[in-house]
Design a protein that fits this description.
about 250 residues; seven-stranded mixed β-sheet; about 35% helix; SASA; hydrolase activity; SGNH_hydro_sf; hydrolase; Sialate O-acetylesterase domain-containing protein
């Protein structure tokens, strides 16, 4: 595994909440009414020797679904966009793709402020990821559903997100770190969801782009993306990275 660590060239941080950590294929088990993952792994999300993930204990291993299982531990994880993203990028670039899962379900943007546990853990994991070689190539960010329940949270979203971007870049010493955020596909309140979406789509900072998830199919809970939608989102994120950033990286 040490050899794989040394050869990890292109590292991506995965941040946000449940639609980044993945609920695709998470179903309710009827007999005991508990949630479980159906273990269906689409072709686009299959493991590959050139895709690694950083474990919670800060060691690299070959990546396979569920890649957030030891990070987003309080909920059942399923398929997210990470593996389809990594496979799509891997097919177009040379070297190993390293994924650094950091997303935790049900978290609001204020919980990702500098000094908060989630933020500090993300920065710690990101710094650890490059110690064996390689370079952080981007932050993939899908979050905001938990900020759609009140006017105050929705109104503050753009400022809080821009601050997060500034802080991550400063703390990692990467002032032009590419950041691809996802505009929401769902929310707790439709009116406030549109306000957060507006903020996400309006952010205009260097090397920050937005991929719009609106219209992707949702599960019966009307909040989480289906497995198929997560595959599509991963491909959308990969297309955005390859179009806007890969040539300069």
């Amino acid at each position: 595994m040490e050899e794989l660590t040394q050869s990890t060239q292109k590292i991506f941080i995965l941040g946000g909440q449940s639609n980044m950590s993945g609920r695709g294929g998470v179903i309710k088990d009827s007999p005991n009414n508990q949630k479980l993952w159906d273990r269906v792994v689409p072709l686009e999300c299959q493991p590959h020797p050139n895709i690694l993930r950083l474990l919670a204990e800060l060691k690299w291993e070959p990546a396979a679904e569920q890649i957030h299982a030891d990070i987003d531990k309080k909920k059942v994880c399923g398929v997210g966009p990470g593996m389809s993203f990594a496979n799509a990028v891997r097919e177009r670039i040379t070297g190993v793709v390293g994924l650094v899962p950091c997303a935790v379900g049900g978290t609001a943007i204020k919980e990702w402020a500098r000094g908060e546990e989630l933020y500090e853990n993300m920065v710690k994991r990101a710094k650890e990821s490059v110690k064996g070689g390689g370079e952080i190539k981007g932050l993939l960010w899908f979050q905001g559903e938990s900020d759609t329940s009140t006017q105050i949270d929705a109104d503050a979203y753009q400022e809080n997100m821009e601050k997060l971007i500034d802080n991550v870049r400063e703390d990692l010493g990467l002032p032009y770190l590419p950041i691809i955020q996802v505009a929401l596909a769902s929310g707790l309140d439709d009116n406030y969801m549109e306000k957060v979406r507006e903020a996400q789509l309006k952010i205009n900072l260097p090397n920050v782009i937005c991929v719009d998830a609106k219209g992707l199919d949702l599960k019966e809970d009307h909040l989480h993306l289906t497995t198929e939608s997560q595959v599509k989102l991963g491909n959308m994120l990969a297309d955005a990275y390859l179009k806007h950033f890969a040539a300069s990286h």
